[in-house]
Write a structure and sequence with these properties.
It contains 9 helices and 12 strands. With 296 residues, it is of the alpha/beta class. Strands 1-2-3-4-5-6-7 form a 7-stranded mixed sheet. Strands 8-9-10-11-12 form a 5-stranded mixed sheet. Strand 10 and strand 11 (196-203) form a beta hairpin. The N and C termini lie far apart (44 Å).
Amino acid sequence: MPLTSPRALLLALLLASTAAQAQAPTPGCDVCATWNADQAPFRIFGNTYYVGVKGLSSVLVTSPQGHVLIDGGLPESAPKIIANIGSLGFRVEDVKLILNSHGHIDHAGGLAELQRRSNALVAASPSAALDLASGEVGPDDPQYHALPKYPPVKDMRLARDGGQFNVGHVNLTAHATPGHTPGGLSWTWQSCDGPRCLNMVYADSLNAVSRPGFKFSASSEYPHALADLRHSFETLEKLPCDVLISAHPEASQLWERLEASVTGGSDAFIDPQACRAYVATARILLDARLEQEKQP
């Protein structure tokens, strides 16, 4: 029985939203320490593994020709991600490609160190690439000046909507899912366990979180924020989606699924309705945000 429900995901996303809003512009904030808590790595399905920290997803997709890593957590997450990769029997030096969801410190902060240790190419959307190159988000980002800076990333390749990236037999596709940030990307690929292959989705954040004073309904800095979010909802709910991993793992009930996998095996991670439920929850949060923005 699928674990996903809009009510459960709503609670998870509310917690994530509250944490993001409380984030102080210092690397030692309490939220960052909570997000960066230790998490043992584990296999999700086939050649897809979770190697991130407790509150921030990082996913390793492996092949004999080299590996792909999605997202790098905080700057202080990088050593933990590297250790998790090693504990699974893989080497960070064999990571050939690092993909980014968006340019906030909690998903991009560790990329520079991960790139340095692996010598991998980093791929990000054109908007996120500007953030990564400077180590901070631009003025069109809803959280501009509300997030700490992080080590900048060099040597990037631009990833646009529908763009495909390959390492060995692993093929990943970028899907533009802006709104939470102007440069948000989600990623899809297939993982196989013997003859059984599943559609995997790494979903970017869809929650309408911002700095004080920003309005998704009326922003001169990011005038298409609301339209972008709604377009991203449509994009994600239409994707073939057998297994969902969200940028903040609790938002897709990853920990409940992990617990269920103790008895149910990898099938516990499978829920073809998960992407739709993830979007349904994001819609509820956006509607609440828009109501709030109407208040004087």
